[in-house]
Design goal:
The chain is mostly beta strands. Helix content is 0%, strand content 62%. It has a domain at 416-483: Sandwich (Immunoglobulin-like), CATH 2.60.40. Strand 18 (211-219) and strand 19 (223-230) form a beta hairpin. It is globular.
């Protein structure tokens, strides 16, 4: 197994929130940079398996790879695996193998030769991050017509891999068995110039009957997103546009802004996108979560405006019984990653935030875990990029004031450190004091002034607990490491 050295930036346990358990774990690769976050899978042994692509810069040029991490639910790094690649993969996925416990499938589209040959590479990995099998599926030679775009790949309810790509303005839909057999392929009619030649966010539209969906973008006076619904043989059976929220005509979806569709139940689904609206001649930006029935009638929606900052949804809306998890990020003002929990009527039960002044959290995946937990994965870009980020939140927060749902509204760095920890706070909070405890719970240091740093000099190497108290009484506990 080829491994790579990691720097554990932090394991942060948010305290002082009734009935809540929050786990935040950050990693940074010493010689490289993450440029995406693909998926989080809960393994059968109650650990989390994480997958993200990366590249390393050497004197001879870049080396590409896909990183896998195995961490405990408490955020402890247990193992890692680097799968080396010849180039950046066009699209990837990482999911449990249907019907086989302890096996996970990493699949990726790759170009070959002069770009006219497309290959699906399949790597089977066990829960100990050992590669147990690899397969390649040749998808065909298309006489030099290069791939223009690829869509999400996923395993459907029948246990088949569903994938798609575009060549020469034609969409190719594929059904591939776990054994590597190319079972079925259909080329949809040429789209022409009235629809942008790309496939986005392919997924399951309904299970009974089995239907799939993908997005296009109608190029009229305004860009209009459209969902295309296909049957199990990839025949198109309906097309539906999304533009205005019908109950508020002044609020319109913004096409091309991270649209996503997710099933809720057999009679309805969710559509998410950025939206914009005009109030008193001023433009406002939102992220919109809308629920539709299978005839595309609007059943309800929720707008998140975050004091009118520019905000974007992530691609995934995770659904549990009578519980909807939704995540988005703010891209101006305070850099925050937000995780919202809503009930079946789209009423907000709680919202939690991760604040980071130096980087944007580009959240790309959300997974509902066992025991009422949800995990969100993101990677960071900005002044201090290249870190991947995982937060696990437990759904036991209905009776707590929403304003308390803040996951560490400050950053602290470096961690580990030989000399001192620096703290940078969100502008909307005021620190009151900082305390440092050893692992036996003994108070070692306390300060009420100059709360932008904490001196570690004179302490033995090891792990300590830093407690930060904010104005209003909220207390947060963070693990810090003295080298």
């Amino acid at each position: 197994m080829k491994k790579t050295t990691l720097l554990i930036i932090g394991l942060l346990m948010a305290a002082g929130v009734a009935k809540a358990q929050d786990i935040v774990t950050e990693f940074q690769h010493e010689n490289g940079k993450y440029f995406n976050f693909h998926n989080i899978v809960e393994a059968d042994d109650n650990t989390l398996l994480i997958n993200c692509p990366m590249f390393e810069m050497y004197g001879s040029g870049p080396e590409y790879g896909s990183m896998f991490y195995k961490i405990s639910m408490e955020g402890v790094l247990l193992d890692s695996l680097l799968v080396s690649l010849d180039d950046v993969p066009l699209r990837t996925f990482f999911e449990p193998v249907p019907g086989i416990n302890g096996q996970y499938l990493y699949g990726r589209f790759e170009r070959a030769g002069n770009d006219s040959t497309t290959v699906l590479r399949m790597t089977f990995i066990d829960e100990n991050l050992s590669i147990i099998n690899e397969k390649s599926v040749l998808l065909g030679d298309y006489q030099g017509h290069a791939i223009l775009s690829t869509s999400d790949m996923f395993i459907d309810p029948n246990g088949d891999i569903i994938a798609s790509f575009v060549r020469n303005r034609c969409i190719h839909m594929l059904r591939i068995g776990i054994d590597g057999e190319l079972k079925f392929q259909r080329q949809l009619p040429e789209l022409g110039y009235s629809l942008s030649v790309q496939v986005r966010h392919t997924g399951v539209y309904s299970e009974h009957p089995l239907r799939y969906s993908f997005w296009g973008e109608r190029m009229t006076s305004n860009f209009v997103s459209e969902v295309h619904v296909l049957d199990s043989l990839f025949e198109e059976i309906e097309v539906h546009p999304y533009n205005s929220l019908t109950t508020q005509p002044t609020i319109r979806f913004m096409s091309g802004m991270q649209e996503h569709l997710a099933m809720y139940d057999e009679s309805s689904y969710f559509y998410t996108s950025r939206a914009t609206g005009t109030i008193n001649n001023q433009t406002h930006f939102y992220t919109a979560l809308a629920r539709y029935d299978r005839s595309h009638n609007l059943l309800g929606y929720k707008l998140f405006d975050e004091d009118d900052v520019n905000i974007s949804p992530i691609k995934v809306t995770a659904v549990a019984p009578d519980t909807i998890y939704y995540s988005y990020m703010t891209t101006t003002g305070n850099n925050q990653l937000a995780l919202a929990c809503l009930d079946a009527d789209l009423e907000i039960r709680w919202i939690r935030y991760v604040y980071d002044p130096d980087c944007f959290h580009w959240a790309t995946t959300m997974t509902v875990l066992r025991d009422g937990k949800v995990a969100v994965g993101s990677y960071k870009y900005g002044q201090n990029p290249g870190r991947i980020f995982v937060v696990v939140v437990q759904d036991e927060l209905c009776d707590v004031d929403e304003k308390q749902f803040v996951i560490r509204p400050y950053s602290y760095y470096p961690n580990p450190s030989q000399t001192e920890i620096h703290l940078q706070y969100s502008p909307d909070v005021t620190p009151q004091n900082i305390e440092l405890y050893d692992m036996q719970g003994r108070l070692l240091r306390s300060k009420r002034n100059n709360l932008e740093s904490l001196n570690l000099q004179g302490l033995a190497s090891g792990t300590y607990t830093m407690r930060v108290t904010l104005e209003g009484g909220n207390v947060f506990s963070d693990k810090v490491i003295k080298e």
